[in-house]
Prior knowledge:
The structure is a homodimer.
Chain A: H1 5-12, H2 16-23, H3 31-44, H4 50-57, E1 61-68, H5 73-86, H6 91-95, E2 98-105, H7 110-122, E3 127-130, H8 136-147, E4 152-155, E5 166-168, H9 172-186, E6 194-198, H10 204-218, E7 230-231, H11 236-249, E8 255-258, H12 263-272, E9 280-284, H13 288-295, E10 301-304, H14 307-323, H15 329-332, E11 337-339
Parallel strand pairs in A: 1-2, 1-3, 3-4, 4-5, 6-7, 6-8, 8-9, 9-10
Antiparallel strand pairs in A: 10-11
Helix pairs in contact in A: 1-2, 1-3, 5-14, 7-8, 9-10, 11-12
The first copy, chain A, binds a DNA duplex through residues 4-6, 14-18, 20-21, 23-24, 28-30, 33, 48-49, 51-58.
Organism (chains A, B): Xaviernesmea rhizosphaerae
Protein name (chains A, B): LacI family transcriptional regulator
Domain HTH lacI-type (chains A, B): 3-57
Amino acid sequence: MRPTVHDIAAEAGVSLATVDRVLNARVGVRAETRERVQAAVTRLGYVRDVAAANLAKSRSYAIRFILPDGDNPFMHALKAHVLQVGDPATRLGGLERLAVSLDPVPSLDVVALAAALDRAGEQGPAGIAVVAVDAPEVEAAIGRLTARGIPVATLVSDLPASGRRHFAGIDNIAAGRTAGGLMRRFLSGRSGPVAVIAGSLTLRDHRERLSGFADVLAQGAQALNLLPVLEGGDDPIRVETLAAKLIAEVPDLAGIYSLGAGDRGLIRALSAAPERRPQAVLLHELSPHTRQALEAGLVDAVLAQDPGHIARSAVRVLRAFADGTSFDPAQERIRIDIFLKDNLPPG
Amino acid sequence: MRPTVHDIAAEAGVSLATVDRVLNARVGVRAETRERVQAAVTRLGYVRDVAAANLAKSRSYAIRFILPDGDNPFMHALKAHVLQVGDPATRLGGLERLAVSLDPVPSLDVVALAAALDRAGEQGPAGIAVVAVDAPEVEAAIGRLTARGIPVATLVSDLPASGRRHFAGIDNIAAGRTAGGLMRRFLSGRSGPVAVIAGSLTLRDHRERLSGFADVLAQGAQALNLLPVLEGGDDPIRVETLAAKLIAEVPDLAGIYSLGAGDRGLIRALSAAPERRPQAVLLHELSPHTRQALEAGLVDAVLAQDPGHIARSAVRVLRAFADGTSFDPAQERIRIDIFLKDNLPPG
DNA sequence: CTGTTAGCGCGTTCAT
DNA sequence: ATGAACGCGCTAACAG
């Protein structure tokens, strides 16, 4: 049997209450007594039973997710996973006494986002997870939360200067570099210009992906020629227009890298003129549309981050911060997944 | 507050004991009483607090891992992760009352493996995780465990016919296909033969990878020519010999796919004659050696499965089986990771 | 068949 | 500065 507080108390010759005070670093214990208890703890190899402690405290972890209510498939999937994590019928929801709530916020509305952050803070949650937008208002709001001791994790798009405790998402510079590496390899030998379609360069993650990608294309013996970046606002319709024009006007186009959303438009443009499809097409995030395009050979590879992993990881990390315990960084690292048609997950 | 057994008892007008009997499907309750309790449960939306239940039962989950004590880096990493999962100081070890133990078994010794399985079963564990070897003795031993109601999960290499409840590892046919897809793309346009180095074709996972790879190379307009498979016994020294000979004797060699272990030998052979390196080199599993080779440009891509994920997943799944609860299949799917030099995890 | 009671390991009053 | 006693939500003896 693992030693319990009783064993510690007996070993140290004190009462349970004193052991508790020492274990929780509370005041009102003589230094000498404290020593005795600590000695007993290490001697017996005591480790606190967190489950029992939480039961006694009837603690529950209120975690708030603030997500853009945009309509892109990735955010939809993320929302679904957050709800699933909070479902009391599941392991995390049940066993781990979580109370997950979800606040939708108009997409890219920095004022609304800052307000939502402040409001969430009022409820005194155990932690807050938010898809950050790169704006001073948001940065300040996160700073206020942090100052009040509420751990904040950014999701998908980071805001390091805000003081957030954690970022759950991929390294977007590395993602861009990865796309660059694939592009080079898929185009081996061949020359011809490469196009990039972004959502908006005001988005930090898009800027980062672009910079990593451009970096890799420029380096090495045979640099690839990068066309001026197109911005489609993550909107399928605008993206389709841009892509169709691109394909029509650049006959020797070698590759396309779409680093934002709105890929439905790109896919439509590609399937409208299959004979002019460039040799390599790369895009981000798995959705029914991108899956299908990959399976159909319209797209060569999809870079992705797993929304289920992001949701679960944010919860685990925020819980750990709330408890003051540690977590396994390797487990919480969000991978840059590369999907070809052959390693697609089922479903 | 979430409703508790007390609320149910009050609502149904019975005692706690009766509620407990109904909740745990124990005998000795009149059908009519049972109905009343169940009605109260659904009316109040009761869900059992698993943590409290486990506390009361002072239940702990004994999970045994049976792993080959071979010296390859992947198995080493897997072992380390298993130990970490079992560490009482971690979340899983502490909060979740696990007692993980590790039985090493001589690599590829089917008799010893079967004996270890039988022995593990004697201890009455909550679950057993094992790296299966494709042999009738092993299959039978797993069958005996399953028959006794002990859930078994195979790790890395599967044995579906054994009756194991779960497999934690990648789909190796898909992994082979993925390697094939990368090989085709990396060799786009270029022809020339492609070599495969396996450990041993008596290993199910190696056979499966080969079959998926060969499949993809053969299909499509321009089939790639596959040389006869080389078997290096997962031994760096034998692999080095084979690879060196291959590189020397096949001047127009376009690609190499190493689908087993012993890659240290392959890497040595490649760096000994860098000017004759084929255009595409693919191999499996991340290790200090393969990382370095990737970074040095000696290897183009590494396919991998995350040993940390496998260890954690096996524990979660076996616990779920022991409890008769469900788990999230998407969370437990082991991904076929593709690493280029640009999306390598840190460390 | 059903109810009472005493813990599981810990946190938290309220006394001393 | 320290200790005794009760309760968190649930299970398991033992009564009845």
